[in-house]
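Protein modeling request. Please complete all fields; requests missing the sequence field cannot be processed.
Requester role: graduate student
Desired output: 3D structure, token encoding
Chains: 1
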Amino acid sequence: MSHLTVRPAAGEYAPYYDLYIKNIPAGHDPLQQLHEQPLLLKELLADFTEEQGLLRYAPGKWSIKEMLVHMIDTERIFAYRALRIARGDQQPLPGFEQDDYVPASGADARPMASILHEYDTVRAATLSLFESFGPEAYERKGTASNSPTSVRALAYILPGHEAHHLHILQDRYLSLLVK
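Delivered output (179 residues):
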């Protein structure tokens, strides 16, 4: 059994992240899920128009483009946290306010192809980083957002966060497009 098929223990992450970690099936390697998710995302967004990328499922909610850029931003931040912790950095890492990032991203003004290209680039970098870590790196712990955080937990949180948003995409956004 791979060292990553063992779920992170409760003390390896803030309880809030259970929301994401539970999206990784028991015994499943989260890096495999990181490999698989781009295929699902591309399938869901096949033949999407620029106008559909601006769809919001309710007033005040993010557009599809904004949600995608949020996923990219979050992946970058969590991968950066994993890098720092894997390298033994014990400096506490700050949190970030997603609701400040989204308006500043300018996502709605970008072509969908540009966002998807950035997604692919970031995912390739994330996979390269996580696949470079040895088993001992996944055991290292640091502090992020004022909570203990292990590299293993981040390896689960990343695909779990995306799975959360893919579920929202399917249930709340795409259901509005079905006639």
